[in-house]
Amino acid sequence: VGDIVFFVRTDMSAVLHRIVKIKKDGTLIMKGDAQRWREEIHPGQILAHVTHIIRTEEKFSVESKSYRFWVKVWKPFRLIHPPLAYVINVCHRLPYKLARMRRRGEN
Question: pLDDT tens for residues 43-86?
């Protein structure tokens, strides 16, 4: 639980999601960080396990204590992640849009 895996769905699309639960029959419950619903897969659908994440030129092991800590801290906020990510994205793009509008007004 908590591992990130690359798997193939029944429609043959490949997806990178986190394992959030393992059922007694071995079925895996998957959820993307920005996804509101969960989906079930069988272990045979897994193509690869993520071992490291590279962010801003730093390489992090998914087995490190710091990574596992942040996964646990972030978990309760997953429900608000999609709308929060949208708001952050809009706020990030806003200055660029305003600058473009000003340039168009000057012409």
Answer: 999 999 999 988 788 888 988 888 888 777 777 776 676 777 77
Task: Count CB neighbours of 91 within 10 A.
Answer: 9
In this structure, the number of other CB atoms found within 10 A of the CB of residue 101 comes to 10
Residue with tokens 């069988």: 42
This model's pTM is above 0.70:
no
Q: How far apart are CA 77 and CA 73, in angstroms?
A: 8
Q: Residue 88 and residue 56: Cα distance in Å, rounded?
A: 18
Place of tokens 């079925």: 27
| Sequence-ordered strand ranges (E) for 1-107 | 4-8, 14-22, 28-31, 39-41, 46-49, 52-55, 58-61
